[in-house]
Amino acid sequence: MSAASPTVSPASARIARFVIYGLLILLAIVYLLPFFVMLITSLKPLAEIRSGNMLALPQNPSLDAWGKAWGSACIGVTCAGIKGYFWNSIQLVVPAVTISTILGALNGYVLTKWRFPGHKLVFGLMLFACFIPFQAVLIPMARVLGMLGLSNSTAGLVLVHVVYGLGFTTLFFRNYYEAFPDELIRAAQMDGAGFFQIFWRILLPSSGPIIVVTVIYQFTNIWNDFLFGVSFASGERAPMTVALNNLVSSSTGVKEYNVDMAAAVYAALPTLFVYVVAGRYFVRGLMAGAVKG
Amino acid sequence: MTIRMIAKLAAGTALASLAAGHAIAQDNSVEVLHWWTAGGEAAALNVLKENLEAQGITWNDMPVAGGAGGNAMTALRARVTAGDSPTAVQMLGFDIRDWAELGVVGNLNDLAEEEGWEAVIPAALQDFSRYDGQWIAAPVNVHSTNWLWINGDAFQAYGGGEPQSLDELYAMLDAFEEQGITPLAHGGQAWQDTTMWENVVLAVGGIDFYRDAIIDANADALSSDTMREVFDHMTRLAGYFDPNFSGRDWNLASAMVIEGDAGAQQMGDWAKGEFLRADLTPGEDFMCMRFPGTQGNVLFNSDQFVMFEVGEGARDAQLAMASAVMDPAFQVAFNTVKGSVPARTDIDDTEFDACGKQGMAELAEAAANDTLAGSLAHGHAQPAAVQEAFFDVVTQHLNGQISTDEALERLPQAIAAAQ
Amino acid sequence: MTLTVEPSTPVRRHASLADRARAFLPKIVLAPSFALILFFVYGFILWTLYLSFTNSRILPIYELVGFDSYVRLWSQPNWHMAIKNLAIFGSLYIFFCIALGLLLAILLDQRIRGEGVLRPIFLYPMALSFIVTGTAWKWFLNPGLGLERAMHQLGWTSFKFDWLISTDMAIYTVVIAGVWQASGFVMAMFLAGLRGIDGEIIKAAQIDGASTFSIYRRIIIPLLRPAFLSAVIVLSHMAIKSYDLVIALTGGGPGNATELPSTFMYSYTFTRSQMAVGSASAVMMLMGVAAIMIPYLYSELREREK
């Protein structure tokens, strides 16, 4: 909806528009500041960072810090930058997001279109699972991963993220499919379509918006996770956030703010990309279901 | 897509269990968990890595920085719980004992006997490297926390001698204030606050009081008048900080001294590495001295590589690593960079700078005179739970959240509750 | 495996087997996820509960000692501080995220040119973890390095912004950074809600001569009730779990001024070697979550029935 009302006089309407744009632009500047500081700092040489104003634009912008962060910064005894860890994260995120999204879609489908006695309890339990503080599950999880032979591996970390993402993905799809007309399902059943056929042919093709929401949500959470990464995959399989932390919070030596910031921007790029590109669908997806509950 | 992903995951699972199954076979690699992630420390650790690689042993690096080793200990818990311990783990003091108590550490007795560790490692360190007489860890270095670092120019301008007591320290800090610089650079983090506090405890009460109050956690000592004096000194010292000390990393506080924005910093000898990397010369561009009032005493902490229990196949590589840690060449290479002194007492001091030489001599002296005690702030005086209880009171007092009276009342309570 | 099925088995039985299998299929599809959650969430909660009655320190011990760790927990000044801070942080965080999120959504909903550019600007902080932005924030808020210094350099020397280093105010800097991160997400939820409102209702109100303000107050905002509820749930869940935020900004300091239950639990479990106390605090946190969530879930799921 829109509130530009025809009854207001043109002059006051113009003032209103002015205020609205002014507010929006001001807020946008405030929201952008932290990232702006990261970006310009990564382009400055160290001396300029120490002596200059943090908000000032770089006098001689240089990409040296970016090159170093990517390819030659030392993390532990290996000085090969963060690029390896970047790929670790990709290898982790892709299967974890895919699996948890597919399971969430199937769960949402069952919980709305194939209800059985107790389906609410099942859903309630799955939803409440979203709220468990992750710090509390580290030790038993480590034990289970050890027993499965998945300790310190990407596969183990994928399992962890799938398990603790299921609550959210199920929630998203359930709320979305809730609004999906049951008549269509019944009609398809009459035509002899089975469980998977209905899902595949009828629900999935119209699930675009909610898939976008779920993928964005899961991608962001898993990419940004530090706690599980540091506990279950430190070392060579470490995800990006763990490597970034090693780089940034090392306690000795000259703090190379520009390299730290460049590495942080690298770590932020994939999620930023996803938000900017898919942001429009995000609101659309939320509209289509997720906000209902 | 789905099936491919699932297949991938399944393959990963199979691969991982395959790897686990093969652990019994000869494994010529070591996995090392540590938090020396950057700068000179990592470079120094590289010496160890290269030494091992020359022997055909692969080094799997597992660096986990942050939280003064806190994150590393979390990762370690996860690995040990999973039954998949790393080969060697960097660790401090009482943590070593805690892990040894759980029976998950290895046995280095044969190697230690063969190489004669007992004769060259100070007894105070052996208290931590051995558990029930069994060697479990290879000590890398000995750090000492009771040091004061002073900017050379500011010190020249002050013109006085090295402060020998807290009163002389205040005189010097007053002079720095008149020079228009921050007299005392400090980083407001619990462990840094407590590092300063333990220095003041030692300066005010002497080594016996330190042992009584901190090592034995005697409740009477903790609420005594001497302790009141300690807290009063802390309040007074805090008056010499700049307002923005909260949360500052220690190396940034060192940088203030290096750049002449601040006059002095109380910090352990690892701070020296910062000064050296800035190309400053000890004795000229910066001064290193014992914290006033603590001369003749040494508060120490020691980084050790604790060897965890690993499969038979990985034992040889583990022993090779332990031996390489104790190699005099590594101890020199590492400690000249790190600012600490070698854990071995039989190492020549020619490679070390003036501060390092002083540190080595004073360590030997303190060990001989029994004036060597473990540092509280660095896990060598109390187990983690009690140590953190000290941290709570000290840092809240220094930040003005509680008064001296409250601190004296709370200190014994908090410690009793944590024990 | 040998084939023992007789070729003469009646066709009817085949069908009924297949039917039964088909009837079970949805449950079979759901079962793995549900089993995973039962085990990895509820099993682990029970495990944590058990551990809270032991004397576990560095690693789990399974010998029960009663309520000792709960007594210890409630005797810790840090825990009281954590709860007090959660109350301050949680309420301000939720309030400001919703207020700002709603404001942004309403502003963006005024047929704004360039909405496509502005929307991601407000949304992007949600994409970044505090592991990434923490250094920048810490820097920004530090009076000696960041905003205060920058303003002084620009000539505004009376400018003062030193909350980060003040024991009384530090928790509010955590709120600021938290609101920065999450308010865009809330905006997206409200925007979705606004876009879902039927334009006819608004037109009818306008014809009746209602002012823009009263249309929002009387009609639109009440219609956004579901979005409000979702926002509160999502935000309270993020408030309780906030951990990276505090660690990145203040590390719990100055002193213990910004301790939260999540940081308390982590430090007691992992760095202070008092795992039983950490588990007890986890149990208390879960009870708190349950106190909010169970009534909500109950009413929500009942309502759906109608």
Automatic annotation (TrEMBL), chain A:
SUPFAM superfamilies: MetI-like. Keywords: Membrane, Transmembrane, Transmembrane helix, Transport. Residues 86-278 form the ABC transmembrane type-1 domain. GO terms for biological process: transmembrane transport. GO terms for cellular component: plasma membrane. It is a multi-pass membrane protein. PANTHER family: ABC TRANSPORTER PERMEASE PROTEIN, GLUCOSE IMPORT SYSTEM PERMEASE PROTEIN GLCU. Belongs to the binding-protein-dependent transport system permease family. This is Carbohydrate ABC transporter permease. It comes from Pelagibacterium lacus.
From TrEMBL, chain B:
GO terms for cellular component: periplasmic space. It is found in: Periplasm. Keywords: Periplasm, Signal, Sugar transport, Transport. It holds the Pfam family SBP_bac_1. Residues 1-25 form the signal peptide. InterPro entries: Bact_solute-bd_prot1 (IPR050490), SBP (IPR006059). Belongs to the bacterial solute-binding protein 1 family. PANTHER family: ARABINOSE-BINDING PROTEIN-RELATED (PTHR43649), BINDING PROTEIN COMPONENT OF ABC SUGAR TRANSPORTER-RELATED (PTHR43649:SF28). Part of a binding-protein-dependent transport system for a sugar. This is Probable sugar-binding periplasmic protein. It comes from Pelagibacterium lacus.
Automatic annotation (TrEMBL), chain C:
Its main location: membrane. The chain crosses the membrane at residues 28-50, 86-109, 121-141, 169-194, 215-240, 275-298. Gene3D superfamilies: MetI-like. Residues 83-298 form the ABC transmembrane type-1 domain. PROSITE patterns: ABC_TM1. GO terms for cellular component: plasma membrane. Belongs to the binding-protein-dependent transport system permease family. This is Sugar ABC transporter permease.
